[in-house]
Write a structure and sequence with these properties.
By secondary structure, the protein is mainly alpha-helical. It has six helices and no strands. It has a domain at 39-132. It has helices spanning 2-10, 18-58, 62-66, 69-86, 89-99, 102-132. The longest helix has 41 residues, at 18-58. It is elongated and about 70 Å long. The termini are far apart. The model is unreliable at 1-9 (pLDDT under 50).
């Protein structure tokens, strides 16, 4: 599919309008981004859950007393917020794809996944440490 998108964007038919060409490129790039990033969202969420679970276990048995309905709602809110922030990668992904650097982007995507997940895990660490009182 990627090759088809590249051929279509590099050699648009003379009758295609610039807007149609742009929309064609955009839909191809969005589909490519979705195919790459959405399966990796699970890795992101598992990493954050592992950080929170680690703090919960480290602060046991005190963490059990801190686990209230409101604490669960806070974690739900933070999980949704983290996943909204995860979507910021699509802006970067589309920018790079439109720049024509797609061949080199495979390594860049992995680097962004690792750095972004590590950054989110650090934020989760501080929130969980504060909530559960673990060090």
């Amino acid at each position: 599919m990627r090759k088809k998108v590249d051929e279509r964007t590099e050699n648009p038919s003379p009758s295609e309008s610039p807007i149609a060409t742009f929309i064609s490129r955009l839909t191809g790039y969005v589909a490519d981004g979705l195919r790459y990033w959405e399966p990796r969202r699970a890795i992101f969420n598992i990493a954050l859950a592992a950080v929170v679970a680690g703090h919960f276990v480290a602060a046991w048995p005190r963490s059990w007393t801190e686990l209230t309905f409101n604490t669960i709602l806070v974690f739900f809110f933070l999980a949704v917020l983290a996943n909204v922030c995860y979507c910021a990668v699509y802006v970067v992904d589309l920018f790079v794809q439109f720049s024509g650097l797609h061949p080199a982007w495979s390594k860049g995507r992995m680097a962004i996944l690792i750095v972004g997940t590590a950054f989110a895990a650090v934020i989760a660490h501080f929130f969980a440490m504060n909530i559960f009182g673990s060090n």
